[in-house]
Amino acid sequence: MLQDLDKTIEAILKAELPEEISQQTSVSFATPDSEFPPASVSLPTINLFLYDVVESTEYRTGGYPWTQTAPGKFVKPEEPMRAECHYTVTAWAREGAPAPEQDEHLLLGAAMRALSKYRIIPDFALYGAMREVEYPIHARPLATGRLGSPGEFWQALGGKPRPFFNYMTILSFTVREPQVSTAAVTGAKVNITRTEP
Fold it and tell me: Residue 107's domain is classified under what CATH number?
């Protein structure tokens, strides 16, 4: 599922980046550690690192009522689980670039503009399992990240600090099948009896 979310975000970048950048820049999801880039990533690249996935309660409804779908048949849908997926977005210039920081700022700014165009992921970008989710996938470009200390984050990865921005998506997925009942409650009966002391 998460790999399909990666592909979905990549589709947005490829569609919305300026053509001269899109044609020459890869999109990667590797860990930006001291060994970056791995052999599978070609530079220059825009890298999105999924560093945190937590439950989202923002769109919780508190459950759904029973609804009648046929005579004598009632269904109660289960509320889906919603997850916040937090990415750091960084840019990496090609090796040997005369001014790598300028190239990286150019790429980072282009990625920021591209990802900021959508607060709801558009249908054209949905990939694989993302096409089957019941609710729209919300996006929070430039969201407040969940990194307490960016310096400690980069230190933990063994890399040097570099500019980045946070990008968050909220996706839903079903964990249980709907409850089904074929017995409708049509009335109630109370029996009261008295016994002698």
Answer: 3.30.2000.30
Would you give the DSSP letter of residue 189?
A: -
Residue 48: inside a domain, yes or no? Answer: yes
Please answer whether residues 70 and 125 qualify as being in contact, where contact means their C-beta atoms are separated by less than 8 angstroms.
no
pLDDT in tens, 127-177: 999 998 888 999 999 988 788 788 889 999 998 899 999 999 999 887 756
Q: What's the confidence (pLDDT) of residue 149?
A: 84
Residue 89's alpha-carbon distances to 54, 113, 125, in angstroms, are 18, 12, 18
Report which residue type is found at 172.
Answer: S
How far apart are the two ends of the chain, measured CA to CA in Å? Answer: 67
Concatenate the DSSP letters of all residues of 103-127 into one string: HHHHHHHHHHHHHTT-SB--GGG--
Q: Is 15 helix (H, G, I), strand (E, B) or coil?
A: helix
| CA–CA separation, 154 and 49 (whole Å) | 12
Residues of the chain with pLDDT under 70: 59-69, 72, 74-78, 176-191, 193-197
The number of domains in the chain is 1
**Three-state SS at 13:** helix
In this structure, what DSSP letter does residue 37 have? S
Domain residues for the domain of 9 are 2-181
Cα torsion 160, 166, 167, 171 to 10°: value is 100
Q: Which two tokens stand for residue 173?
A: 């997925």
Q: Does 195 fall in a domain?
A: no
